[in-house]
Specification:
The chain has a 5-stranded mixed sheet. Strands 4-10-9 form a 3-stranded antiparallel sheet. A two-stranded antiparallel sheet has the order 6-7. By secondary structure, the chain is of the alpha+beta class. 49% of the residues lie in helices and 11% in strands. A hairpin with a 2-residue loop joins strand 6 (301-303) and strand 7. It is globular. The protein has one domain: Cytochrome p450. Bound molecules: protoporphyrin IX containing FE. Protoporphyrin IX containing FE (HEM) is lined by residues 66, 84-85, 96, 99, 239-240, 243-244, 246-247, 250, 289-290, 293, 351-353, 361-365, 368-369. It is an enzyme of class 1 (oxidoreductase). Belongs to the cytochrome P450 family. InterPro entries: CYP450_sterol_14alpha_dmase, Cyt_P450, Cyt_P450_E_grp-I, Cyt_P450_sf. Keywords: Heme, Iron, Metal-binding, Oxidoreductase, Peroxidase. Its cofactor is heme.
Length: 417
């Protein structure tokens, strides 16, 4: 018989989760010598699972819904009601295909080029400034780039407003309290803007290129042939812009890797595509970003000798799986080289979810995420010179989403000749 899934001694683990953050699940799995355990979070029974075998169980197509699986305030900041994340079955597949249709190689290359152009356009300002807080200064660049790519360019005050709103939504997603309230408040303005944009595209008042993501979303039809409601279309437009903006954190982590791991810097000197890609993947594996994903069972199923019932809540440990010693040699070393000979197993490397992206809820945005990180690494390692003043670069693993304490300050920025 399979071993039972152990249960934590404490009645409710919510405080422990807030305290231990990214390490909450893996700490307990190590303690119990198990890839799964049961506990309560916010008073609800939950099974927490980690590792490749758990990811295979979790990403079985059709097994879990995201509805009721993520605390509502977090959902509203990250995905929104009415978005692809809240759909299941055929409806989900159909909406998901729309997102995936935006990830053609040409489209992915375009966002990379637009991003670098935006960055270069701002370089004179960077050179003129005494100090650059990378986390903050990259935000308007990314925001402007993704909006331009989507077909809805932003300027001036509008760019400032959207940048502020996206930053607050992402920052507020992992907390309860003021950071979250601020995100929720600002999100309403973003949604008003999104609805206006969709209405203008549909009425012809706003000209957008036919193949641009905003146009694709505005004319998308659901399975019964109906266009999305204005608010659902706005939600999906924002669902494209906001998470692309969130690549911000990976860029800061890439910059951190370059300063923390001098060997890693040498690895990408020369800017070969294969090496930039391996470096970007290692950034996504090594640094903490999205801690866990949650699902509620749509059907009963068995796993590890336990019967799961419809409605049971399961949390899959993304961060811990990316650091699982059974999968990764020396998981706590930053080693881009490992991705030069990686086997592409979609259940062992899951920074943005795993398995088959078309039929489950895995993130559709990985191609553009990797593209933008690669471009940023090349820029930071090979095209710019800068100094690193003394600062606190530590990354708290109990703050979700994580970011270096100092937000990474650089000084004396100049283009490399
Ligand atoms: C879903 C992470 C970038 C759009 C997800 C999920 C995670 C994730 C963990 C949930 C997976 C699941 O529920 O199983 C990230 C991270 C990113 C990122 C860490 C880096 C910044 C992007 C980008 C896009 C995007 C650039 C733009 C297209 C989405 C959408 C979903 C999603 C639409 C819902 C998919 C579905 O329910 O089928 N992402 N993502 N994400 N992401 Fe991303």
């Amino acid at each position: 018989p399979m071993p039972q899934i152990p249960r934590t001694g404490s009645f409710d683990s919510t405080l422990a989760l807030l305290r231990e953050g990214y390490d909450f699940i893996s700490n307990r799995c190590a303690r119990y010598g198990s890839n799964a355990f049961e506990t309560r979070l916010m008073l609800r029974r939950v099974t927490c699972v980690t590792g490749e075998e758990a990811a295979r169980m979790f990403y079985e197509p059709g097994r879990f819904t995201r509805r009721g699986a993520i605390p509502q305030p977090t959902l509203r900041l990250l995905q929104d009601v009415g978005s692809v994340a809240t759909l299941d079955g055929e409806k989900h597949r159909h909406r998901k295909a729309m997102f995936l249709s935006l990830m053609t190689p040409t489209s992915v290359r375009q966002i990379g080029e637009i991003f670098i152009n935006e960055w270069q356009r701002r370089l004179p300002q960077w050179e003129a400034k005494e100090r650059i807080v990378l986390f903050q200064e990259i935000q308007p660049i990314l925001c402007s780039a993704v909006a331009r790519w989507a077909g809805t360019p932003l300027r001036g005050k509008e760019l400032e407003a959207r940048t502020r709103e996206f930053a607050a939504m992402i920052d507020g997603a992992g907390s309860a309290g003021p950071r979250q309230w601020r995100g929720a408040w600002l999100r309403r303005r973003t949604e008003r803007w999104g609805r206006r944009v969709i209405d203008e595209i549909r009425s012809g008042a706003r000209a957008v290129p036919d193949e641009s993501p905003a146009a694709v979303i505005a004319r998308h039809r659901d399975l019964s042939g109906h266009p999305l409601s204005t608010s659902d279309a706005a939600v999906e437009l924002i669902n494209l812009l906001r998470p692309t903006f969130a690549v911000d954190r990976f860029i800061v982590f890439a910059a951190l890797a370059l300063v923390e791991h001098p060997d890693a810097r040498a690895f990408v000197t020369g800017g070969e595509n294969e090496r930039l890609e391996a470096f970007a993947q290692e950034v996504r594996r090594y640094y903490p970003f999205f801690p866990v994903v949650g699902g509620r069972a749509l059907e009963p199923f068995g796993w590890r000798g336990r019967g799961f019932r419809k409605g049971d809540w399961v949390l899959l440990d993304l961060y811990g799986t990316n650091h699982d010693e059974r999968i990764w040699e020396d998981p706590n070393s930053f080693r881009p080289k490992r991705f030069l000979e990686w086997d592409n197993n979609p259940y062992s490397f899951i920074p943005q979810g795993g398995g088959d992206v078309r039929s489950n809820h895995r993130c559709p945005g990985e191609p553009i995420t990797v593209e933008i990180i690669k471009r940023a690494i090349d820029m930071l390692a090979n095209r710019l010179d800068y100094d690193l003043p003394p600062q606190d670069l530590s990354v708290s693993r109990s703050r979700m989403p994580a970011v270096p304490k100092s937000r990474l300050v650089i000084t004396n920025v100049r283009p490399r000749n």
